[in-house]
Write the structure tokens for this entry.
Amino acid sequence: MSTKKVPLRQCIGCGEMKSKKEMVRILKTESGEILLDATGRMNGRGAYLCPNMECFQKAVKGKGIDRSFKMTVPKEVYAALEKEMGQFG
């Protein structure tokens, strides 16, 4: 019996590789809106973060989110994402 391959994703904050289920997905929709994707199944470009505030702050400081979506993310969007990330710990 072969074992099922676990999809790994890299955190844009700390750079660690973890399984997709351990990460939180940030999504850029086709309309350009940036939000958290709790289900991990919404359409659009995704970037992954560890579910803690340290990694989120590293991603903001290192411009990881900007780089992932190839655009400058407005401060209001960062504030909204930070509020949503507070739910995860």
Summary: The radius of gyration is 13 Å. The CA atoms of residues 8 and 19 lie 4 Å apart. The helical segments are 53-61, 64-69, 75-85.
